[in-house]
Amino acid sequence: MHRLPLLLLLAALLTACGNTTATERPAADQDRPPNIIFIMSDDHAYQAISAYDDRLIETPNIDRLADEGMLFSNACVTNSICAPSRAVILTGKHSHLNGKIDNRMPFDTTQTTFPQLFQQGGYRTAMFGKLHFGNNPKGVDDFMILPGQGNYINPDFITPRGDTTIEGYATEIITDVTLDWLKENGQGQEPFMMMYLHKAPHRPWWPTPERFAEYYEKTFPEPPTLFDDYSGRGTAAHTAEMNLLDHMQYGHDSKVYPEVQAAMGDELKPNMEQYDNGFYGPYNRATPEQQAAYKPTLDKIATDFEANWPTMTDEEKMRWKYQRYMQDYLACISLVDDNVGRLLDYLDESGLAENTIVVYTSDQGFYLGEHGWFDKRFIYDESFKTPLLVRWPGVVEPGSSSSEMVQNLDFAQTFLAAAGLPQPDDMQGESLMPLLTGDTSSWTRNGVYYHYYEYPAVHMVKRHYGIVTEDYKLVHFYDDVDEWELYDRKADPRELQSVYDDPEYAEVVDRLKSELTDMRAYYKDSEKLDRHYMQFRGE
Asked: Among 116, 165, 415, 514, which is most exposed with the fewest C-beta within 10 angstroms?
């Protein structure tokens, strides 16, 4: 294994082929378009950022972006699953138009991505970290990306000069490469657009050995809905396979040695074949020295498990799994926060901060034990909503916030507008510039569209689409069921009771159904397309 020098990455500079109009750009420095750094983590729940909620973890560095910029409290996604979310962000188009409806369907490579438009417009572009699909990112001059999901420990990378493996921890390596690139290119004549993309905190949640040991000693508050029985919801919630007790794996997720599991006999369920190498797959990537650093904590987990598991009730097992989940998941987030701090510190020290837009988000939300779940996929808030924080000195008011319904669909057009670059007519989002600049009267959207497709598949969340406003959420689950749900987001923020059949909400249902029909037509989605994708997958 070796560290690939950054100088071996492709360093081509492309000639600007687009025009920018300075008067269209409300940047602090009108003589130079703003730099843009887009930071995205993977499966980072908004509940695990202290600017949103400080009950689980403190994230002082990510919080700096809220203190010095704008926090969006109703930011959300169009399709809560990794690769489709990234395709939406890159193209500014819903999944049914960019082709990436789920993690299996191919991305339509004829689509234009916003990095291509920045490259054509005279920006230097770069991407470091997790893309998740494809091995040749479009529109980036320099890149080093993880293949597929990537690995936390001694990760492999795809580069313009071939594949390489780098010894170390993924979050820190991605940051090292990002900082190296900024030091080489950040002060050049061209503005830059950089995508700094973390694998963390995606499953299976391996932090560094030091943070692993530290967080194993912590205890975290349980969500009020940890033991939700889904009595107020339909079939989809009852049949999903993402319950902590029933579906979280012992070795892959809780880091129990497989040998210890085997000694327990057949009681340890589930034990899905796809996770048979879930422990040793990541662990065996470590060098002997790294394994030795992990071992004391792994031994403690095994000792605790052997001593207590056989006599635990199901309720106690659920609580044990929740704590193990939070210990590792939040440890991974603490490392993301540390490394975001490294980046922000460099921007301040180098003088780049004052003309650089910094965005922090996740590819979607995530369940942290709410409703007894982990993972994402549903239109319900914990997976539907995503963190979004934007700092732009001299433009965005420090400490400001917005509760407007904004989506990852909007990012491409927002970045293009901020840079003064043309926005293609076929993009489907809306620039967030009115909200970022305080011109809220120019923002007219009052609802967003969501469509999830990946079923049957891991976690078995049924296909559904819906409309979400600040007040209500109307959802249609379709194909092997035909069920509707309605949630009053203000009266029932935990979304425990569908009021679709409540006569008091009949007028709301009728209105939202009509708006949903109009919205599906506006975004060019249809039942015909739904059938097309099912047939394409051989269903």
From this structure: 514
